[in-house]
Structures are given as C-alpha cells and as structure tokens.
Amino acid sequence: MGLRLAIALGVCTAMMGHFGLACYAADIPTPPKASAYAPAADLVKAVDDYISRIGETLESQDDFAEFQARVVKDAETIAVLALVLGLHDEKNPYQAAAPALIKAARELSAAAAKDYASAKTAFAALEAAKSSSGDASTLKWEKVASLKELMQQVPLVNSRLKRNMRRFERQADAIAVDAAVIAAISQASMANLDETNQPNQAEKWFTFCADSRDAAAAINKAAKAKNQADAEKALAAMTKSCDDCHAVFHPEAIGKTDVE
After folding, report:
1. DSSP characters for 193-231?
2. CA-to-CA distance for 190 and 206, rounded, in angstroms?
3. What is the pLDDT at residue 250?
4. Is 140 helix (H, G, I), strand (E, B) or coil?
5. Are 81 and 184 in contact (CB under 8 A)?
6. Which tens digit of pLDDT belongs to each residue from 1-47?
7. At what angle do helices 61-86 and 147-165 cross, to 10 degrees?
C-alpha cells in the first residue's frame, strides 16, 4: 500500500481523563471504515473474552501474582478495542460505552501494575463501564494505550492464531476474532509513533501498520469464508509485514515513552 503523506512533526499534548498523553504530532492517514478490517461483532467478542479472562485471574491473589503482567496487557488491549468500536461504522453494544471503557481500561492497567486490591477495584469499574452511555462522537484516532504492551500482546495473539490454523475448520471463528484484534491494534498503533525508536520515520510506521492491518483483515475475511488457503496466504503477508517493520523499528526499543 503506497501512502503519500504530508508529515508535519511537532510536539503536542493531549488529555484523556486524568492521563497525560504526550506525543509527537503527525498526521495519521484517514483509515478505511472499521468494518473493512475488523467487524464489530468480532471486536465485541474479544472485549468480552478479555474482560472475562481478567475477571477469572482476579478471583485469586495467587493467580493475579502469576498473571499480573497479562492483566496489564489485556487492559491496554481493551482500551484499543474500545476505541475502534467507538469509532466503528457498524452499530455495536459498546459504541456508546466506548469512552468510559477506554478510561476504565486505562485505570485498570495502572492499578494492575501496582497491586491486587487496586486491580480488583479498577476491574469493578471496568465492568460497570460496559453498560455506560456516553458520546462516542468525542472520540478520535489518538493514543489510548502503551505501544510496549500492545507489541507484547500481538505475538501472543498471533501464536494462538497460528495454532488454530492447524485446526482451521473447527477454529475458524476464533481465528477471525484474533485477526480482528491484530487489525485493530495495527490501526490504533499508528498513534504511537512517538514510542518507537524512530519517531521521524512516520511514513514508514504508518505503512507498516496499514500493511499489518490489511493482512489481518484478509485473514479475518478468509476465516469467515472458511477458505484456509487464503487465510494462510494472508498470514504469510502479515508475518512479512511484522518482520519488515522490526527491521526498521527494532522491537527492543519500542515502548521507550509509555503512556502515563
């Protein structure tokens, strides 16, 4: 995908709730409709699954101690999925709740990084946020999660997706959901340019994100069509886009400026 962008870099500061999100401004390319790369139903299923997994982990302090880092990653991922659902062109159960979900997910991430009691309290607020009613029109494409956590989540989702490809017929629905998650993360990560090791390489970053998004979208569509050959071809394309990105934006340097 050739993106011709007029990039203007400068320092900006955005506020979301009481979280300060410092960033380097660059014009994020106008994305396609979200339904083209991540169907709302798949993202809703993913949000429910992540919230359920966090809830199960928080049932026990021992489980939390073992999976604390995963809770943080899952909360960050929920924030991104909620953003895409809020801006989605398909009506969905979490569209009105998206602003509150983003805020609650961010608060859960910060709380889970501290201790069990804080995480439990923040998780209760996240569950309550699911039924809230806000104004999704206030949302825009901006940074709502830590790139470091998102980039650690992607290989976990990708590994599960690859395992399920070996049982394609039985796991096509799960493959579609995981592909939608990666597509959503890829699109949302465009706003995290400042957290890369080369924030001056905006055009390349946007292109790699778009390539990953579109390849994941192709996996999603192939899984829904029960076309394993096309799914495997798209998976190879997505893997290549990740490898190409890592050759420029080194993974060990990503996340140097996390969302506070």
Report:
1. GGGSS-TT-HHHHHHHHHHHHHHHHHHHHHHHTT-HHHH
2. 6
3. 74
4. coil
5. yes
6. 333 333 333 333 333 333 333 344 468 999 999 999 999 999 999 99
7. 90
Structure-token pair, residue 22 = 């410092």
Closest CA to 43 of 213, 180, 188, 158: 180
Q: What's the pLDDT score for residue 212?
A: 97
Domains and CATH numbers, the chain: 34-138 (1.20.120), 143-253 (1.20.120)
**Residue tagged 């699911």 (tokens):** 130
pTM confidence score: 0.87
CA distance from start to end of the chain:
33
Count of C-beta atoms within a 10 Å radius of residue 2: 4
The stretches in the chain having pLDDT less than 70 are 1-26, 251-260
